[in-house]
Design goal:
CATH class of the largest domain: Alpha Beta
CATH architecture of the largest domain: 3-Layer(aba) Sandwich
Number of strands: 8
Oligomer: single chain
CATH superfamily of the largest domain: NAD(P)-binding Rossmann-like Domain
Strand content: 5-15%
Bound molecules: NADP nicotinamide-adenine-dinucleotide phosphate
Largest sheet: 8 strands, mixed
Structural class: alpha/beta
Length: 297
């Protein structure tokens, strides 16, 4: 694929599709085209970001002649969209050729969902940005410097490397069979972290601090932990009562939760257990140092 002269099509102008379109339109591609079934989203993309993007009038218009097509739609629509494109191409007597590349951006699905396109001769892969992208503006910022996981037909690797470089990201390769555990790790790191912070905010509310103040109070603490983790491995970054072997404090936490927020006890005990495993690497503590964790609530 001659990258600088290539035509890139993006189907879906949501958070990731729009950000991709904006970032890639700043590069030297022949054309960056976007199609979405939701014309309001397309217009918003043009108006708000004023990017050098051509808005396609139809799926067929976007895909026909594109060298690289991103299926940037919700995971649940990727397979049917792949099927639709393969039928479109067949009806137009322009079946995807081996020079045409198709990618989706899902972290949990493998490139196997693009099978209808692969069966028609196209080169298929998945390229997942390991990032939490809540809106288009945030995604434009967030994609730069992110890791992108490549999985699929190895003929697409140079294409994926070129795209990731254009996005100032880093590429890692995955086996299809590893994607579920990989995605679970992403969920733990991103989604579960948010749930934990909500738990901490609710605990603060338990002593009468309002949600917004609690959120602000916790942010510097989160940043401190984050900065520690940037410098050293988790076992070294760990601070707090468990790494000090302080069962009295842990017992006080359990008593307070039992009284005020008993629904959080199970999560507290599970996470405290993970902390003990980690602390064992740093300070040599063991479960025997925490009798309060052994008592069921
Ligand atoms: N957001 C993240 O944090 C994130 C991070 C990494 C990877 N990803 C992956 O990126 C992909 C896109 O996610 P997103 O968050 O950008 O989704 P999104 O914001 O919901 O946008 C998807 C867009 O695609 C449109 N669409 C759906 N089916 C279509 C079709 N058949 N033809 C044309 N347009 C269609 C949707 O229209 P409607 O609104 O009408 O449905 C919507 O505008 C997913 O595979 C996701 O797993 C997302």
């Amino acid at each position: 694929m001659g990258f600088s002269k290539s035509k890139v099509a993006i189907i879906g102008s949501g958070r990731v599709g729009s950000a991709l379109a904006i970032l890639l339109s700043r590069q030297n591609f022949r054309e960056v085209l976007v199609f979405d079934r939701n014309s309001e989203k397309l217009n918003l993309l043009k108006e708000q970001f004023n990017a050098k993007i051509r808005v396609s009038v139809s799926l067929n218009d976007a895909v026909a002649g594109a060298d690289l097509v991103f299926l940037a739609v919700q995971d649940r629509y990727i397979q049917e969209l792949a099927q639709e494109i393969s039928i479109l191409s067949r009806d137009a007597d322009s079946r995807p050729q081996s020079q045409q590349y198709f990618a989706h951006l899902s972290g949990s699905l493998t490139s196997a969902v693009l099978q209808p396109l692969a069966a028609a001769g196209a080169v298929t892969f998945s390229l997942h940005p390991l990032q939490s992208l809540a809106d288009v503006a945030g995604a434009v910022q967030g994609l730069a410097g992110s890791y992108f996981s490549f999985e699929g037909d190895h003929r697409a690797l140079p294409t994926a490397e070129f795209i990731v470089e254009a996005l100032a990201g880093h590429l890692v390769q995955l086996n299809a069979s590893d994607k579920a555990l990989y995605h679970a790790a992403a969920v733990v790191s991103s989604n579960f972290f948010i749930a934990l912070e909500e738990m901490a905010i609710n605990m603060m509310r338990g002593i009468g601090v309002d949600s917004e103040t609690a959120r602000q109070m916790l942010l510097p603490l989160i940043r401190g932990s984050f900065e520690n983790l940037e410098r050293v491995a988790p076992a070294e970054a760990l601070t707090g009562p468990i790494v000090r072997g302080d069962d009295q404090t842990v017992a006080a936490h359990i008593a307070a939760l039992t009284e005020k927020l008993p629904d959080y006890l199970a999560a507290y005990r599970t996470l405290a257990g993970l902390n003990v495993d980690l602390a064992a690497q740093k300070s040599g503590v063991s479960f025997d140092d925490f009798p309060s964790l052994k008592i069921s609530s």
